[in-house]
């Protein structure tokens, strides 16, 4: 198989001591490419420094909804400068998170809309985060999202109605290791077969959401473990994992406009 971890945070400090080993284990697990998703200007800068001289590493620049309260126009300007690098293939992780409320709703919404505008200006695909927004996220997308841009709802954990609404917007759906978890992933396993094959991505969201069976031995997730997500996804869809992984590889490269790898 040829796997693309479409969303990870391996710029996290938990990888400081064994970053090269993490990349080696990914290679051994057939993970040939990774997208390091930015969550602040600082994290985006760090991700770029890690990816610049390494094959198969790409990054996105963005401001996570948790960090929206610190958002300024200067932040967007700084991210636009970073986005000039050929390693930057997407904008995000941006969206709404009304679960933990690390940032007020008003700040999250303002930050999201500003980033939709920036991505439109730069013609970059978007990486979206949504949690417990009560439909507000979709409302904003329906009014402010340029559908000519591509995008992915990362770590999808919504219901069938939300899934269909995202698909109508032309968005890709990111599947994490949650699909492997017995109880937490039960509903996701039920609706995963409803996703058109040409709209699925796989991801780790590392260092978070470690899949089974790695979860029993590793607290920290890493790109190599996306293989377990791929195998479980193929199982619940009753599809050949090699064929499905090829489709998903092509989906990811198409979304991020990557060729030649």
Topology:
Layout: E1 3-8, H1 19-28, E2 31-37, H2 41-51, E3 57-61, H3 73-82, E4 88-97, H4 105-122, E5 126-131, H5 136-144, E6 151-153, H6 160-168, E7 172-175, H7 186-191, E8 200-202, H8 226-237, H9 241-256
Query: Which structural class matches the secondary elements?
Result: alpha/beta
Q: What helical percentage do the residues reach?
A: 25-40%
Residue stretches low in confidence (pLDDT < 50, at least 5 long) are none
The number of helical runs is: 9
Give the amount of beta strand, in percent: 15-25%
CATH fold descriptor: TIM Barrel
Question: Descriptors for this entry?
Answer:
261 residues, globular, TIM Barrel, eight-stranded parallel β-sheet, alpha/beta
Explained architecture:
- The chain has helices at residues 19-28, 41-51, 73-82, 105-122, 136-144, 160-168, 186-191, 226-237, 241-256, and strands spanning 3-8, 31-37, 57-61, 88-97, 126-131, 151-153, 172-175, 200-202.
- Helix 2 runs parallel beside helix 3.
- The protein has an eight-stranded parallel sheet with strand order 1-2-3-4-5-6-7-8.
- It has one domain (3-256): TIM Barrel (Alpha-Beta Barrel).
- Helices cover 39% and strands 17% of the residues.
- The model has no long low-confidence stretch (mean pLDDT 96).
- The protein has 261 residues and is an alpha/beta fold.
């Amino acid at each position: 198989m040829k796997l693309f971890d479409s969303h990870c945070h391996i710029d996290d400090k938990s990888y400081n001591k064994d970053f090269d080993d993490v990349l080696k284990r990914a290679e051994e697990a057939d993970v040939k490419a990774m997208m390091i998703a930015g969550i602040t200007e600082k994290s985006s800068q760090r991700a770029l420094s890690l990816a610049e001289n390494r094959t198969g590493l790409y990054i996105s620049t963005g401001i996570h909804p948790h960090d929206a309260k610190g958002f300024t126009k200067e932040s967007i300007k700084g991210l636009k400068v970073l986005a000039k690098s050929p390693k930057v293939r997407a904008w995000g992780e941006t969206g709404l998170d009304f679960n933990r409320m690390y940032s007020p709703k008003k700040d999250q919404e303002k930050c999201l809309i500003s980033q939709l505008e920036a991505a439109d200006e730069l013609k970059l695909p978007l990486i979206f985060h949504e949690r417990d927004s009560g439909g507000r996220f979709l409302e904003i997308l329906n009014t402010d999202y340029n559908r000519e841009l591509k995008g992915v709802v990362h770590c999808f954990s919504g219901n069938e109605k939300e899934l269909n609404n995202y698909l109508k917007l032309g968005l890709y759906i990111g599947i994490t290791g949650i699909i492997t978890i017995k109880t937490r992933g039960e509903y996701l396993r039920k609706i995963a077969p409803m996703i058109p094959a040409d709209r699925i991505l796989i991801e780790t969201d590392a260092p978070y959401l470690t899949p089974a069976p790695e979860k029993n031995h590793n607290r920290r997730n890493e790109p190599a473990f996306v293989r377990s997500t791929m195998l479980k996804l193929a199982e619940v869809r009753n599809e050949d994992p090699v064929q499905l992984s090829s489709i998903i590889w092509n989906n990811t490269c198409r979304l991020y406009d990557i060729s030649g790898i």
